[in-house]
Amino acid sequence: MWRFGIYVALGGVVFGAGIAILATFWVIQWRRKKEISGKMADLELQQLGLSIRTTSEKVSFDHGSRGALDGPIVVKSTPRKRLVETYTIEELRKATEDFSSSNLIEGSVFHGRLNGKNLAIKGTNTKTLAKVELGLFQDTTHHHPNIIRLIGTCSAEGNSDSFLVFEYAKNGSLKDWLHGGLAMKSHFIASCDCFLNWNQRLKICLDVAMALHYMHHIMIPSYVHGNIKSRNIFLDEEFVAKIGNFGLPNVAEDDTELSQSWSKGYLTPEYTPQGNLSPSIDIFAYGVVLLEVLSGKTPITEEKGEGRVWLSEKIKSIVQADNAEGLSEWMDSALGEDYSFDGAVTLANLARACVENDPSLRPSAGEIVEKLSKLVDALPEGEQFSICESSSKPLVRAPKN
């Protein structure tokens, strides 16, 4: 009997041990499956996020949260598409009062009003129209607050005239404001006494840098503008800067000697007409724009005893001399002394880096955004966006209804 009892006890122990082993094995397997399931879920979320970022996100920049490079970027998912409209020539004639001279902005660009919206309507030809990268405007993925948006096109039948319809920039181009002539004053600006103050200029420089950062680092594949100049930087009614000619072929805008001279002032030393465009080409041209903002001078000027002087070369001698008085004398006289000299030194050094002969030494658009963000954030509260010498908005003609 006692042997039988031992066998029963041993059997119970073995049975219990087996149950314990099976329970332990089941718990391990359950935990392993849970971990694998969690990892798969994370992977699916990552893949979903990547898909959204690369196909249907709208990337915009929040000017209220500048600082670190990733600070200004706010990503919003917008699945709806924004198609480029197709207009008839009759619609554009009506919008521009039959392309009236009173609606002429400059060159072949007219102000128009259609369906309650202000538009900029630019005459072109069918060959140029065929080269426009319409795919960049077919959805909200490539809509950025500092890039002029192409709203529609018009290809007139029976002749070579075609039209591009753009978002309207109420305050003209940066060139108009910096270089005195104010080519658009007959339509935009009724007083030539107004000018861009220091705070505005810093904000405009940051706006343009944000657009370049978007083109060079956010867009997939990256996009090189290839025609950055003050003439292609436009200002809306709140003086927010927007880069124009985005998605357009790089063609000569006119044949005047002045325009050709200015265009040459933006070209990099390594530029060749048939060469590949790289982001460093945009950075060099942007550096020249910074120099225009600082000095109020055109990219190429005529100076007594020096002949033709390139701004991109002039800044090198000024920075190298390390002469504060020389920089002060070179600054735009319209500013008077109403600017931060330390800020001007920072901007001059940044511009100098942008126009380096060696493309590898030029800063990226992201680095430029970081430096300019600090300058703008350092402006006294409430003074970042004041307008003109009397802190009042310039006299701008109201668009016709």
TrEMBL record:
<keyword id="KW-0812">Transmembrane</keyword>
<keyword id="KW-1133">Transmembrane helix</keyword>
<dbReference type="InterPro" id="IPR011009">
    <property type="entry name" value="Kinase-like_dom_sf"/>
</dbReference>
<feature type="transmembrane region" description="Helical">
    <location>
        <begin position="6"/>
        <end position="28"/>
    </location>
</feature>
<protein>
    <recommendedName>
        <fullName>Protein kinase domain-containing protein</fullName>
    </recommendedName>
</protein>
<dbReference type="InterPro" id="IPR000719">
    <property type="entry name" value="Prot_kinase_dom"/>
</dbReference>
<dbReference type="GO" id="GO:0004672">
    <property type="term" value="F:protein kinase activity"/>
</dbReference>
<dbReference type="GO" id="GO:0005524">
    <property type="term" value="F:ATP binding"/>
</dbReference>
<dbReference type="Pfam" id="PF00069">
    <property type="entry name" value="Pkinase"/>
</dbReference>
<feature type="domain" description="Protein kinase">
    <location>
        <begin position="4"/>
        <end position="376"/>
    </location>
</feature>
<keyword id="KW-0472">Membrane</keyword>
<dbReference type="InterPro" id="IPR052611">
    <property type="entry name" value="Plant_RLK_LysM"/>
</dbReference>
